Amino acid sequence: MVKSEGPKLVPFFKATCVYFVLWLPTSSPSWFSALIKCLPIFCLWVFLLAHGINFLVSHRSASRILAGLIFSAVGDAFLIWQEQGYFIHGLLMFAITHILYSSAFGMKPLDLKAGLLMGIVSSSCYAFLYSYLSGPFTYLVAVYIALIGFMGWRALTGVQLCNDLWTWTKLSACAGAMLFMVSDLTIALNKFCFPVPYSRFIIMATYYTAQMLIALSAVETRDEEDFRKRS
Known about the structure:
By secondary structure, the protein is mainly alpha-helical. It has 11 helices and no strands. The radius of gyration is 18 Å and the shape is globular.
């Protein structure tokens, strides 16, 4: 997987390095800073497109992940101007992203135990945040947590290590979803509760890694039909 897909990810790694090296101040939002922030996600578009249009058309999960990456880039751009009132717009874009990713990961196997676990984690996070929320964020954050928790559940159920029902792509999706949740939880804590040390670095490092892993999950490395049979 590394040998075949690694070279296609080189632009992503370079773009990510550019973001962290430039480290443009968030206090001065601009279209240039939006471009630099979105550039790694643009590279993931190219990564998926490099596998061919036929691949994306014939694999619905891959096309939905690409669509999710597109909405993510729009969300990233909105969040550049979050202090100017565009935070909710970014929240909406990422909510759509999680719906698309959930659809890409599918509903099989169901694994209600994993769903219960994610439900407890999501509910606990919202219960902690609730006293810090006010106005429309009281319900908007609840809906968002429900969506990202659902996405995490669908990614988690793809990895059944004890039954050997897994692929590297399923493992990649699961790791990506968990890191996405860590990134968004850090955003919520830093914005609504208290300053998180090194919050921006934590948020962006986990976010870019999460998106890369989810993009990688769209690439089949083992016979998917064999996986379905063993499921």
